[in-house]
Design the sequence.
């Protein structure tokens, strides 16, 4: 990646595009650095953990059905996001595979909008929509420039995918990749060691309670309770029957919570609603959450 190549990429563009490239490139590198130096981002014991963030998005995101599949691979997703942010930022500043970087930036901004800032109202208070527009403007300006150059030279339209037959282009892309990984590793070495305290009473370690598991536990007021973990997260109900106070248990064959006293049945997948018997109301919900590597009440 020679200095003259980078200089050339900045020389033949309008001042407006220069400003947009600078802003997007610096912001994407900063976003990657922010994650790399955050001791909690890849640490399951932290509330900042990428897995905890993904779990939080499930309640309001329109792509929750997709995010649900990412939770079990959260650390890998975290690395991919962090290195992609560095790669896009460095590529934009260095002028390497610019169209592809702009497309990647637009796709990443759209993903953030649909997950993190979807519930921000009014929409203009969330920045992701503005970033989508900036990336699209950059992409269109590159396309327009390449169309103009090619109609002058009579060449075919420039492609979005870089020309991998061009050895120098491949070397430049590889250099961006190496620089991105190096930046992520360097950030990891300089990160601040801050472990936030748990906000709740620990029930069980996340690693000891797989998706699909159920267990009985004692709530903080001493009463019996039942904990569930599904792909969507964790939830719990009181095990005290709302009819006459018998202790209910979960049946893995009927997938219902059953009361041994008068045949009351509750459906845990429907908010513990009564599906049979005399109980007058659903079981009481108990607030539980994932805090880093622990499932806690509270
Ligand atoms: S106490 Fe549970 S059904 Fe009566």
Sequence:
């Amino acid at each position: 990646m020679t200095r003259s190549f980078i200089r050339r990429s900045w020389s033949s563009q309008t001042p407006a595009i220069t400003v947009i490239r600078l802003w997007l490139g610096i912001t994407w590198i900063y976003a990657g650095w922010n994650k790399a130096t955050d001791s909690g981002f890849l640490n399951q014991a932290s509330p900042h953990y990428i897995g905890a963030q993904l779990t939080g998005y499930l309640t309001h995101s329109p792509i929750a059905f997709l995010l649900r599949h990412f939770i079990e691979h959260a650390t890998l997703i975290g690395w991919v996001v962090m290195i992609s942010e560095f790669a896009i930022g460095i590529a934009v500043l260095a002028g390497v595979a610019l169209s592809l970087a702009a497309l990647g930036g637009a796709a990443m901004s759209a993903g953030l909008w649909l997950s993190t800032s979807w519930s921000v109202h009014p929409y203009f208070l969330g920045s992701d929509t503005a970033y989508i527009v900036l990336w699209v403007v950059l992409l269109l300006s590159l396309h327009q420039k390449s169309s103009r150059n090619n109609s002058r030279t009579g060449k075919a339209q420039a492609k979005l995918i870089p020309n991998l037959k061009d050895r120098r282009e491949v070397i430049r892309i590889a250099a961006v990749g190496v620089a991105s990984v190096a930046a992520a590793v360097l950030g990891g070495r300089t990160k601040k060691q801050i472990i936030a305290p748990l906000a709740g009473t620990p029930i069980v370690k996340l690693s000891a309670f797989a998706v699909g598991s159920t267990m009985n536990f004692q709530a903080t007021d001493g009463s019996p309770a039942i904990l569930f973990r599904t792909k969507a997260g964790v939830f719990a109900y009181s095990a005290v029957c709302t009819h006459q106070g018998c202790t209910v248990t979960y049946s893995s064959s009927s997938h219902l919570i059953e009361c041994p006293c008068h045949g009351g049945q509750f459906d845990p997948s429907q908010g513990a609603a009564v599906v049979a018997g005399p109980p007058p109301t659903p079981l009481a919900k108990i607030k539980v959450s994932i805090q880093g590597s622990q499932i806690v009440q509270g």
In short: The chain has two domains: 3-189, 201-297.
